[in-house]
């Protein structure tokens, strides 16, 4: 039923080759995914995409707003307008502590 394609055969480093003759399917549940399809695959994630943006002044934030004055029926009212133009994403950032990949197929703790 899954909506994501992360469990399709052979596309992820932890998914194995997908063949019936896979030597990791012989009951050895504790073997790591290093020997399956990608020899350099690791269960850890060291970087991620940032959700923050730089504006034209060089400020860094998740969202930017501009204060505008709206005159309605002779009364001035200040409103905040969200800025979505001229923003550049921060890019890839290094994590302080490595995280375990979401698709890593090993149970880490059984309580």
Describe the model:
The structure is a single chain. With 111 residues, the protein is mainly β. Helix content is 0%, strand content 35%. It has no helices and seven strands. It has strands at 44-49, 53-54, 60-61, 64-72, 75-83, 88-89, 92-100. Strands 3-2-6 form a three-stranded antiparallel beta sheet, with no helix packed on it. A hairpin with a 2-residue loop joins strand 4 and strand 5 (75-83). The radius of gyration is 24 Å and the shape is elongated. The chain starts with 43 loop residues before the first strand and ends in an 11-residue tail after the last strand. The model is unreliable at 29-35 (pLDDT under 50).
Distance between the termini: 27 Å
Mean pLDDT: 76
Total number of strands: 7
Number of helices: 0
The description of the largest β-sheet is:
3 strands, antiparallel
Based on the structure, what is the oligomeric state of the protein chains?
Answer: single chain
SSE series: EEEEEEE
In spatial order, strands of the major sheet run: 3-2-6
Short description:
It is built from no helices and seven strands. The chain is mainly beta. The strands form three sheets. A three-stranded antiparallel beta sheet has the order 3-2-6, with no helix packed on it. A two-stranded antiparallel ribbon has the order 1-7.
